[in-house]
Write a structure and sequence with these properties.
The chain is an alpha/beta fold and 204 residues long. The chain has one domain: 3-Layer(aba) Sandwich (Rossmann fold), CATH 3.40.50. It has a 5-stranded parallel sheet with strand order 2-3-1-4-5, with helices on both faces. Helix 3 runs antiparallel to helix 4 and helix 4 runs antiparallel to helix 5.
Length: 204
């Protein structure tokens, strides 16, 4: 069983990955953020570091997928390789923060990797408004994230909505998180667990 959680920066993916992994006794696989050598530089100069950052994430996510396949365990994954390509890299290219040459190079590498990638059995999309994203980003206190532009987050949200509307690689569960607090409110977490349970049982 492979569950993946998708969503914009600050939507709560990592936290929910941890909580669901504990409940369903699954192995959590997290996005490589703290170890990323380009992330802080990227937020200070997006155009200079966009290609480097996206290739790092793509490589990290592809390696993670190969490890997931090798273990054969039930896992829950924080963010998918598809978001790297269809949300973040595409957005940087559209904003002229990644050159046409770099985007074609990146896309070619992704297309090659996708030949080997198996989509998750269930994709959970955490849908959040800009105020919710900003509040969560500020509350976790990562210094380099304080410079994230509102327009950048908004563009990402638009791309997520477009991607989710056309997603056809497997089962999809959309959870609107603006009015949920699955960390402090057990009822909210329980509601999400019930929805995930219903989707999981439908996979068999």
């Amino acid at each position: 069983m492979h569950i993946a959680i998708a969503g914009n920066i600050g939507a709560g993916k990592t936290t929910l990955t941890t909580l669901l992994a504990q409940h369903f006794k699954m192995d959590p696989h997290y996005e490589s953020v703290d170890e990323n050598p380009y992330l802080e530089d990227f937020y200070h100069d997006m155009e200079r570091w966009s290609f480097h950052l996206q290739v790092y994430f793509l490589n990290s996510r592809f390696r993670q997928i190969l490890e997931i396949r090798k273990t054969g365990k039930d896992i829950i994954q924080d963010r998918t390789i598809y978001e790297d390509r269809y949300i973040f890299a595409s957005n940087l290219h559209a904003m002229s923060l990644m050159s046409e040459r770099d985007f074609k190079n990146y896309s070619s590498l992704f297309d090659l990797m996708e030949l080997i990638v198996t989509p998750p059995d269930l994709l959970i999309y955490l849908k959040a408004s800009i105020p919710t994203l900003v509040r969560n980003i500020h509350s976790r206190g990562r210094e380099y994230e304080k410079s994230i532009n509102i327009d950048y987050l908004s563009n990402l949200n638009d791309r997520y909505d477009q991607w989710i509307q056309s997603y056809n690689k497997g089962k999809l569960l959309v959870i609107e998180v603006d009015n949920l607090n699955f960390v402090k409110n057990p009822e909210d977490l329980g509601e999400i667990i019930e929805k995930v349970n219903a989707e999981i049982h439908g996979l068999f």
